[in-house]
Inverse folding.
């Protein structure tokens, strides 16, 4: 019995809570050797004019700790970083201690590391992992507004001003954004072989209502062939594509939207300035359209769960069991997808690209506010954004080992085998900085950079671009609203429930949880922002 | 002991402590590692509780951050779901505690009455197995039963000519599903606890009872259950202390985060997770945790007080 009590007491103590936040420990095994200490630049070391080339004189090597998120982490990362360090040691006297974490883990680990005060110089941040605005609010990142033009001049010029404005918080820049496509464009990628076989004219699709007929044909014709093809997936992201609006909080699902005049939508609520997009006629129409799709069986039986399993979705898409899905499109995606899926892939845009504040926050490299080498860190970020050798190396690996150059601007990564054998293969490279100083994979069209420029030029810049919302005054409401939206929106937006019945309930719950307070706060901050312009 | 110290205290006050310490030195030494671990990982982090009242800044740290009073607690009460969250958390846990107690004791007695001991061990292992499964794994097992398209249940219903059920959007079914899986998963573990204390009951009682002509039922009622009582009370008090902590895996993974089920599946832990995963506010997370532990603490002390009134010997402290 005594034994029992002891155990009981231990259990009781274990039950007492500990609110201390324990950092996710991340044992590093990639510490690059600092051996050597100093490296003199061979060519210019002795003769160069120190004033014009301050970084090329013999000097101590600065070690920078760089936390990076990329998926999945390539096997040959260490080799590539070694190669990178050889270059950066000479060029700017910097050595990188590269701590790379796969996307899903980074999302969990990095916020803990920052909260626990772990030392680092550079880290990847965005609005989908290790939230940029949140950590700016917690003083985790360094204000680099002054340092940028001095130490990363080329990058400062290379990235358009609208991007810099968008990442500003209270007038200061805290991170270098990834410059790629500017803004987002919603639409549908579809199996173009199947579209052709069924005689579908996809260029006629400009809205969701148009798409109903397409889905009907796909369903009928595929059934006639004895196949069971799911017409469309990805509906949990589709609503803002059907009726684009400017998300003023930076989180599109939160009920605080602004109308973008070019899209000529939200006529019934636009005069309110900041409005709750769920009260609009557009939302009701959207929900009713997809409800129709759901009931006609175009979505498979279980759209919510189908959407969440992207591996299964990609598999179905490649095998022709799924006709189309909603995505945010970047130039070249369709071409690169058709290379990997084994059939033709087309893209039907539902809107023109829209550039709003949050679009610039898809990926940024930020400096820790505790960094001891902000100048060197910026010089390194500058290389990532402007140096062709560094860009291609970090994106595609080592020439001859991970890729062979094709012409001036392209690389072939098959290396006589398949891509799965390649020890350093990333589908996207923009997380490292920008794709514009990286060579392109041969699956992309040759004029890809032009396509990007066309896209960026066609982008509509949202009316309140540059406005960032500070959630602090309404954190309580945001917490409650986030729950409410998670409860109602997915089933409404996949047509799983009857909108006529369910939307009023949703609106009631939103109001009960402070939607009004949020909108009022957004209005106040927006007025202050516009007054200060 | 008390007398000894009193005596020592009155005569040689200073030597008393030293002497006791010397006498118990080996024992104290043995307790040291556990004590150090306890202080390091259980008491030191408690300073982090300050965060519940602060707006956390990475650079200013826990102690330097600005005070915000009770603002971090507001989000727990200002939602229209506050009542649902509290009701779900407490009612589910109360039900689990009750069922777990009754079923585990019944199973422990049943297994120990089995004459074939090897078979008893086999059953015990089978009941124990689900305890080691992760909730994520269990959620996929459940999904294979309840999936709308391919689920076993909907196939069965179709086979009998009945309409399929949209399991993941009908909250009315979930109290039963959740309870079933919770009991299925944890029952083995509690059963083992009771079996271990059953083996401690002396055989003499049973022999005497058999000589007096007691039936099996009478033996269980008058010997086994009274002997198990202290164990039942301890485990129940501890469980009551955790009544305000819901099993996140059960309530989040099993229903696959399905919105229409929130009325039946939203508990405090899932609410906090969903509320803070966007804003990542450390202060609010600490506030939620502190609130849970205060409720837990009050309940443990309260339950213990009640037990001490009724049966002083079985009280925890």
């Amino acid at each position: 019995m005594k034994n029992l009590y002891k155990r009981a007491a231990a259990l009781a103590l274990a039950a007492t809570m500990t609110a201390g936040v324990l950092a996710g420990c991340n044992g590093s095994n990639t510490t690059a050797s600092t051996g050597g200490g100093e490296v003199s630049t061979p060519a210019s070391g002795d003769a160069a004019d120190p004033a014009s080339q301050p970084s090329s004189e013999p000097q101590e090597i600065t070690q920078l700790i760089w936390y990076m998120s990329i998926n999945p982490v390539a096997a040959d990362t260490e080799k590539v970083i070694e190669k990178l360090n050889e270059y950066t040691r000479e060029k700017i006297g910097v050595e990188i201690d590269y701590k790379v974490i796969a996307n899903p883990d980074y999302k969990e680990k990095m916020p803990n590391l920052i909260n626990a005060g772990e030392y680092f110089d550079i880290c990847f941040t965005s609005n989908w992992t290790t939230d940029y605005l949140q950590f700016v609010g917690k003083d985790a990142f360094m204000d680099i507004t002054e340092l940028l033009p001095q130490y990363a001049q080329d990058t400062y010029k290379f990235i358009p001003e609208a991007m810099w404005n968008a990442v500003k918080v209270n007038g200061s820049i805290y991170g270098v954004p990834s410059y790629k496509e500017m803004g987002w464009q919603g639409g549908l990628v579809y199996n173009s072989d199947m579209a052709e076989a069924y005689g579908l004219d996809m260029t006629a699709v400009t809205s969701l209502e148009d798409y109903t007929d397409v889905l009907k044909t796909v369903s009928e014709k595929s059934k006639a062939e004895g196949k069971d093809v799911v017409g469309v997936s990805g509906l949990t992201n589709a609503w803002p594509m059907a009726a684009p609006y400017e998300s003023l909080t930076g989180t599109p699902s939160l009920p605080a939207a602004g109308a973008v005049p070019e899209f000529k939508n939200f006529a019934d609520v636009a005069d309110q300035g900041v409005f709750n997009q769920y009260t609009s006629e557009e939302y009701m129409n959207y929900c009713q359209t997809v409800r129709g799709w759901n009931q006609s069986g175009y979505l498979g039986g279980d759209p919510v769960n189908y959407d969440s399993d992207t591996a299964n979705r990609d598999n179905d898409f490649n095998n022709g069991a799924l006709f189309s899905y909603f995505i945010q499109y970047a130039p070249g995606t369709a071409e690169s997808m058709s290379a990997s899926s084994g059939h033709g892939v087309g893209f039907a845009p539902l809107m023109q690209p829209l550039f709003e504040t949050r679009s610039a926050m898809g990926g940024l490299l930020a400096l820790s506010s505790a960094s001891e080498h902000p100048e060197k860190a910026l010089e390194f970020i500058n290389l990532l954004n402007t140096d062709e050798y560094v860009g291609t190396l970090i994106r595609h690996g080592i020439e001859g080992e991970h890729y062979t150059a094709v012409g001036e601007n392209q690389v072939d990564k098959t290396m006589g085998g398949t891509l799965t054998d390649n020890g350093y293969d990333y589908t996207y490279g923009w997380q490292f900085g920008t794709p514009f100083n990286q060579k392109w994979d041969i699956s992309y069209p040759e004029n890809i950079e032009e396509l990007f420029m066309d896209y960026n030029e066609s982008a509509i810049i949202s009316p309140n671009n540059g406005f960032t919302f500070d959630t602090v005054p309404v954190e309580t409401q945001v917490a409650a609203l986030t729950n409410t939206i998670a409860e109602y929106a997915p089933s409404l937006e996949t047509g799983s429930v009857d909108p006529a019945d369910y939307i009023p309930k949703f609106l009631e719950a939103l109001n009960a949880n402070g939607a009004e307070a949020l909108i009022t706060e957004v209005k106040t901050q927006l007025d202050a922002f516009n007054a200060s312009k | 002991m008390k007398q000894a110290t009193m005596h020592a205290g009155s005569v040689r006050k200073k030597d008393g402590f030293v002497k006791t310490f010397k006498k118990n030195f080996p024992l104290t030494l043995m307790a040291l590692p556990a004590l150090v671990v306890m202080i390091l990982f259980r008491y030191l982090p408690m300073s982090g509780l300050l965060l519940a009242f602060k707006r956390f800044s990475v650079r200013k740290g826990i102690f330097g951050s600005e005070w915000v009073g009770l603002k971090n607690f507001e989000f727990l009460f200002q939602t229209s779901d506050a009542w649902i969250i509290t009701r779900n958390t407490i009612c589910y846990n109360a039900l689990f505690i009750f069922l777990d107690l009754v079923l585990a004791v019944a199973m422990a007695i049943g297994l120990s009455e089995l004459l074939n001991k090897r078979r008893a061990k086999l059953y015990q292992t089978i009941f124990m197995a689900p305890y080691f499964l992760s909730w994520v794994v269990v959620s996929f097992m459940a999904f294979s039963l309840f999936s709308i398209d391919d689920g076993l249940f909907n196939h069965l219903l179709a086979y009998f000519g009945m309409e399929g059920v949209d399991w993941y959007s009908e909250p009315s079914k979930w109290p039963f599903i959740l309870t079933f899986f919770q009991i299925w998963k944890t029952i083995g573990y509690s059963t083992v606890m009771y079996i271990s204390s059953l083996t401690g009951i002396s055989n003499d009682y049973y022999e005497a009872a058999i000589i007096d002509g007691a039936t099996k039922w009478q033996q269980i009622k008058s010997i086994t259950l009274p002997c198990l009582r202290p164990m039942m009370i301890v485990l129940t008090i501890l469980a009551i202390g955790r009544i305000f902590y819901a099993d996140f895996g059960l309530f989040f993974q099993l229903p696959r985060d399905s919105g229409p089920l929130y009325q039946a599946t939203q508990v405090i832990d899932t609410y906090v997770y969903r509320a803070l995963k966007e804003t990542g506010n450390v202060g609010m997370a600490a506030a939620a945790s502190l609130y849970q532990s205060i409720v837990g603490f009050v309940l443990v002390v309260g339950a213990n007080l009640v037990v001490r009134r009724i049966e002083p010997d079985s009280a925890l402290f």
Q: What stands out?
A: Confidence is low (pLDDT under 50) at residues 1-56 of chain A.
